[in-house]
Amino acid sequence: MNTFFLRKGQPHLLFSLALFSLLIAVSSCEDSGIVGSDLVDEPPSINSDTVDIPLTEGIPITAFSGNENYFSAGWYNDNSFGEQQITGMVNPSLSRQGINDIEVDAKGYLKLHIEEVYGDQNATASFDLVEIGRRWRAPAWRHDSIPELTNNVVASFDITDQDSLEIPLSDEWFGRYVESFNTTAARDSLYRQEMFGLALVPKNQAKIISFGSGNTELIIDNQETSEDDDENGEDDEEPGIYTQFMRATAYSVNREFIPPQGQNTALYNTFENTLRLSFDATEEFIGSKNVSRAELVLYEDTLALQNLPAGHTRPEAKALYVYLLDENETERAVLKDPSYEMLREEEDNSFRLNLTSYINSNLAGTMDERDLYVIVRSNDGRIIPTFIQNETSEDRKPRIIITSVNPEK
Amino acid sequence: MKKIALLALTGLLISTSLYAQQSQSQLNNGSFYTYFGMGLPVDVSSPSASSMGLQGVAVQDFRISNIANPAIWSQSYYSNVSGGFSLRTFKASDNFGSRTNSILQASQFQMVFPIDRERIGVSLSLSPITESKFQIQRNSGDLSNTAVDLDYAVTNTGTGGLNRLELGFGIELFEGVSFGYAPSLVFGVLENETIYNFSDSNYNNINFSEINSNYGFGNRFGLYLTQRDLIGSNDRTSLGITFNLPVNLVSESSIETNTGAGSMDLLPANEFGEQDIRMPMESAIGITYEFNQQWLISSDLVYQNWSDYQGRNEELFTDRLKAGFGAQYNAARRNSPGGFFTRFNYRAGVSYDTGNLEINDTQIETLMLSAGLGIPSRRTGSSIDLNFDFGIRGAGASELVAERIYGLRVSFNLSELMFLQRRLD
User: Fold this and answer.
1) Confidence category of residue A348, pLDDT binned at 50, 70, 90
2) For A164-239, where are the E strands, in sequence order?
3) Do B259 and A360 lie within an 8 Å CB cutoff?
């Protein structure tokens, strides 16, 4: 048996390995520098090309307006976007937190907080608060659904420039609310079956107002009366002011569909007219398979937006949302989160998006076939329209700026 | 016997995996000049020859297998398995900067078996032919045709090379006259990866790799003439000649990229097209004079007609000539007992290589000083050999890259009498 490498007294192997290990340790520190670069072939140059998106389409998709951060109401005739009539809807909750019973002669108020105004800021917008006559579900309330209203006008109010307001509600409507509230058995079922909330119906063309959903309140002024005393002559209810938040908010919009007007397409923060960008992200279209950056650029048509009279305002689209949807997903409401967000570049009023991962996934064939659908950020209950230049624009077409390298043989 | 077989198998697996590996590591970059063509040629020689600056076409040692000359396999006495690892450091500099690369890799692996002891022997080996192990960084560029100020740097990293899987034999035709022949499969993959690194994190780094796969068949012939007592008593004079036919490679290239979303063919092989690559003919001649059992001197001359090479960067290639001279003192064969230093073999040599590249009208020459220490077993024919190299390459013109090369190779040579039944344990 060969015992050369194991024999005691001749540690040749150990000596060799130790020496070798020492040299590895000494040599393992590489010093990176630029050497010889002028002697080797030049690397392929980096290209920056722009490809125009050949087709954009306005595609309507079902969208819901209920239980968002805001709800809107108002009537405004925008020179660019036409007449828009918005009916707001609220349904107060029936919570006994902090209060067990409401006095029969208590007073009710609807408190609204104005968050955003679209239209003539100085005009007075008049509204009727009308009782809704049919049950509705906020999560499934489409923005183009028409609420069924009764003839019962619970209140009327005006909004000019205040930040918030409290609207006194009719004793008749509030009395029925109190009756439902004070009912001991099946009170919630009774309330759902008999009271369906209130609609904010605009009465004149002035402006569209977005209210905060979270801070809209039904204020209950629970006045003390002698009838509150029980058998022992003690009062078991605490007089004072109580609030009920809304269990549901929504709005319905009635406005004309704005077809593409020459070089721009109207876009909203609802899905009622999404902008579908149609292109095949193939090597032929992109011009390369080796993409470092693909930047989608959409331009706002600022000229078309600059025709508001003095004193009128329109909410600005600060960003766009981009959804990746297949054809099946466009046939029903879009409930998922957006895939991308395009932020506004103030310098050139463009919206830009790093689309590299989408392009590379398409080029690699690892992405299902899905198109890009664009809306204004975000479908949150406000009304934010804008115009995006489409493929008929002369110099501001929707485009993708491709930075790539094309190695050659 | 079992141990040799086990070590042979292990060594073969390690060598194969190291040849095949393409991964990046800190110890994975070699000479700058491996960028060109199919990489720099690798002179495959036995540990004893390389530490004398030789290829070793006329160096025969019964303890150490010779891979340079197939004819010498006829003289095999022991069954021998050899292999090892090398570590080389390249300190490169030019007018713009300096850089240090180091590379750790397996050297050749060889098994030699005597069929008819000292008359017929066969060899099976796996050895590198060319080596492409480089990393070249370039000055940052800027993308002027975009609105943004975009800086980037480009790094080229090469890995791979050509290898030779060879099975051959050597036969002593007449006393002192041996002939050898070794057909081989030549194969290898070379990958040249280009990476663009952008300073702006909004831009993804771009990479693409040109992958070049090759195979072909090679043929080597060898002649070994040896004569004892030619000049003096107990001396031996040997002459070795080898001839390596050109190798026509079937070469297929493609360009791939990995974007993070997946790998893609940028230029698949069917579009990039097949290439015909012709590796050059090589011939070598060497002479060795052994004064006695302790002392020998040897010299050899290797010629490769790289001007006949066809392939990438072929316009840069020119004929290569390498001459080496070295000597060995085998203290372990002294008849009289000695101290610690009499247990080893001492070798030293020098070689001059014109190189196969001509860049800017200047050949990339290499001058290499070598020294070695052989640690033989006193009971068996096995040994461990340490080789040290120091060389200078490409110092002929200021615009070229000058390299100082530091090398260390540790080789094992396991030799044992096989197929011989022992009478006594």
Assistant:
1) very high
2) 164-168, 198-202, 207-212, 217-222
3) yes
Instruction: Give ipTM to 2 decimals.
Output: 0.76
- Cα separation, A103 vs B67, whole angstroms: 109
The tokens of A18 are what? 């130790």
> Do A403 and B203 touch, CB atoms closer than 8 A?
yes
Comparing C-alpha atoms, which of B292, B280, B261, B240 is closest to residue B46?
A: B240
pLDDT band for position A10 (cuts 50, 70, 90): very low
Which residues, including other chains, have CB under 8 Å from residue A21's CB and lie 6 or more apart?
none
Residues of B in contact with A363 (CB under 8 A): 259, 261, 264
- Calpha distance B45→B53 (Å, rounded): 9
The mean pLDDT of B251-257, rounded to a whole number, is: 91
Rounded to the nearest angstrom, the minimum Cα separation between A46 and chain B is: 7
The beta-carbon neighbor of A33 closest among B99, B143, B400 is: B99
Q: Are A298 and A322 in contact (CB under 8 A)?
A: no
Q: CA of A363, closest CA in chain B: separation in Å?
A: 8
Chain centroid to CA B131: 8
Please compute the mean of the pLDDT values over residues A95-103 and round it to a whole number. 85
Cis ω before B74 (30° cut-off from 0)? no
Smallest CA–CA distance from A294 into chain B, residue: B203
B3 pLDDT higher than 60: no
**Who contacts A74 (Cβ-Cβ below 8 Å, separation ≥6)?**
A85, A86, A118, A119, A125, A202, A206, A207, A208, A209
- Are the beta carbons of B191 and B158 closer than 8 angstroms? yes
Q: By the CB < 8 Å criterion, does B4 face chain A? A: yes
Q: Choose among A40, A318, A392, A195: nearest CA to B360.
A: A40
- pLDDT score, position B389: 95
- Strands A164-168 and A70-78 turn out to be unpaired
CB B284, CB B302: distance < 8 Å: yes
Residue B199 DSSP symbol: S
Q: Is the Cβ of B420 closer than 8 Å to some Cβ of chain A?
A: no
Determine the pLDDT at residue B138.
80
Kindly indicate the confidence band of residue B174, based on its pLDDT and cuts at 50, 70 and 90: very high
Q: Please tell me the total number of residues recorded for chain A in this structure.
A: 409
B132 within 8 A of B214, measured Cβ to Cβ: no
Quote the tokens at residue A259.
Answer: 């077809």
- In angstroms, the CA A10 to CA B343 distance is 10
Q: Is B275 exposed, middle or buried (0-12, 13-18, 19+ CB in 10 A)?
A: middle
Residue A24 has pLDDT above 70, yes or no: no
User: Is B280 in contact with B246 (CB distance < 8 Å)?
Assistant: yes
- B122 against A405, higher pLDDT: B122
In contact, B35 and B158? CB cutoff 8 Å: yes
Q: Which of B203, B273, B359 sits opposite A39 (nearest CB)?
A: B359
pLDDT band per the 50, 70, 90 thresholds, residue B41: very high
Do A27 and B206 count as a contact with CB atoms less than 8 A apart? Answer: no
CB < 8 Å to A44, chain B: 194
Q: Check CB contact under 8 Å for B98 and A3.
A: no
DSSP A237-289: S--EEEEEEEEEEEEEEEE-----BTTEEEE-SSGGGEEEEE----HHHHS-S
Contacts of B202 in chain A (CB under 8 A): 293, 354
Average model confidence (pLDDT) across chain A: 86
Q: Write the Ramachandran bin of B374: left for phi over 0, alpha for psi from -120 to 50, otherwise beta.
A: beta
For residue A220, list its beta bridge partners: A108, A242
Residue A3 has a pLDDT of: 40
Q: State whether A30 and B26 contact (CB < 8 Å).
A: yes
In the three-class reduction of DSSP (H, G, I as helix; E, B as strand; rest coil), residue A202 is classed as strand
